[in-house]
Design a protein that fits this description.
450 residues, alpha/beta, seven-stranded mixed β-sheet, 28% helix, globular
Length: 450
């Protein structure tokens, strides 16, 4: 049963009844919903037992509702990689701090596990299951194994084996290597069922650009902007995208491909970078040599000092949250002034949801006037706006390659909108006739054995 993340991205949570054992995979918050709608539908399980709780990675749409689940299932075995556990300390504190801003008072009051006093107890419940390691559940009747899934530090795909059957849950995945995080590793033998993410399931020529060419374009844009005495704003997710972009910019500066100018980072993203540096030898990394703390960085001013920043007076590069310019974040506030400056640039380096301010800004053209978020007036678009793709998710072709390698009889599509799932499902059926493809609705039971 999908408790969230069925035919959508957000509140990702999936339940498997295997060999009489109940396994919950992930519990995320939905970034675009409020109140109880933002949480997994744990009540849909009815009387089904939840015996083991496995977290694939630390992004909020997979992790943020862990304290919520523990309120109704306090004794469940909670497993994650050591990297994810370290990141969870930061990410769950952030989720807790945002709850009063995003949800009604009666919901916040009911979520006692999100208090500052309770969060350490939640973190203490995590048991490490490392990448490449297995754990026997239900007295040995079920075995789960974590595989590196790419995507971000410590992210895992999960192989579930029971009574001769094999199910592989990809989690968020990517076969291609990024700058810091390597590509996914898959089971060597075929599986009976593949439960796959489908974020990039729609044909999109924009996704066919190589990372190398995208990096060349980004360097060109940065150089042209800095030469005009402007600054570059790069909206990023604090977990994953900031670290990847910081490493690439650091490489380019050391190689003399872009001039050495102040690089601004801040807030939660800097704490996350410290965790990346703690796990230099992680199996999810390309190598153990890239220490982010060695790249000189300047702290982004807090909100009350944001518009007095030196970056408005001297050429600089800002890696500012959030990647989709959610309201009240640094990138959202800065964009309102940035857009007015003809010699400045905004570079989007990842996906922006059509419902977010980032989508409106990223698709704006010079000469337009736009309004986003809760702004009362239009803003003229005078600065340069560019879009790049450094996706941490598998491209459509990679998703198909996962199907080819694992040869499943059945494919279950998750973590994608209905358009992406439909397009990718049709591609699977055309390429591998006879494969059964389903896309579960939230709250409905599905059999994986027939």
């Amino acid at each position: 049963m999908a408790l969230g993340g069925g035919r959508e991205i957000g509140a990702n949570s999936f339940y498997y009844g295997v060999g009489g054992h109940g396994i919950l995979v992930d519990a995320g918050l939905h970034p675009e919903k409020t109140g109880w709608d933002a949480f997994p539908k744990i009540e849909a399980l009815g009387g089904a037992s939840v015996d083991s709780f496995l977290v694939t990675h630390a992004h909020t749409d997979h992790l943020g509702a862990v304290p919520f689940v523990l309120q109704s299932h306090p004794d469940v075995d909670l497993l994650a990689t050591s990297e994810t556990i370290a990141l969870a300390q930061i990410m769950l504190q952030n989720s807790a701090s945002l709850l009063p801003k995003q949800h009604p008072r009666e919901v916040v009051d009911a979520l006692t596990n999100y208090s500052l006093a309770a969060l350490p107890e939640t973190i203490a419940k995590f048991q490490p299951l490392e990448l490449g390691a297995s754990r026997e559940l239900a007295g040995g009747d079920v075995k789960v194994t974590y595989y590196p899934s790419g995507h971000i530090l410590g992210a895992a795909g999960i192989l579930v084996e029971s009574d001769g059957s094999r199910v592989f849950h990809t989690g968020d995945t990517s076969l291609h290597a990024q700058r810091i995080v390597g590509g996914a590793k898959l089971p060597h033998e075929p599986v009976d069922v593949l439960v796959s993410e489908s974020t990039n399931g729609v044909v999109d020529a924009y996704l066919t650009h190589s990372r190398e060419r995208e990096l060349e374009r980004l360097i060109e844009t940065i150089n042209e902007t800095l030469a005009a005495e402007g600054s570059v704003l790069i909206p990023v997710f604090a977990l994953g995208k900031l670290q990847e972009m910081l490493a690439m910019i650091g490489d380019a500066m050391r190689a003399g491909k872009i001039p050495t100018v102040p690089v601004y980072t801040g807030g939660m993203g800097r704490k996350i970078s410290e965790v990346y540096d703690q796990f230099l030898m992680s199996k999810s990394r390309v190598n153990g040599l890239d220490t982010l703390s060695e790249i000189e960085q300047v702290e982004i001013p807090r909100r009350d000092g944001l518009f007095g920043g030196k970056f408005f007076r001297e050429p600089s590069i800002l890696l500012a949250a959030s990647g989709m310019m959610q309201e009240s974040t640094g990138s959202y506030l800065l964009a309102q002034r940035w857009l007015r400056l003809p010699h400045f640039a905004i570079c989007f380096v990842g996906y922006t949801d059509p419902r977010t301010p980032g989508y409106i800004v990223s698709h704006a053209e010079r000469g337009q006037r736009i309004r986003f978020g809760s702004m009362k007036r239009d803003v003229p678009v005078r600065c340069r706006v560019e879009r790049f793709r450094f996706s941490a998710h598998a491209r459509r072709e990679e998703l198909l390659e996962i199907v080819r390698r694992l040869q499943p009889k059945k494919v279950v599509l998750t973590h994608g909108d209905e358009k992406a799932m439909a397009a990718f499902g049709e591609l699977i059926l055309d390429t591998f006739p006879g494969t059964i493809v389903t896309a579960p609705e939230v709250g409905k039971w599905y059999s994986l054995s027939n």
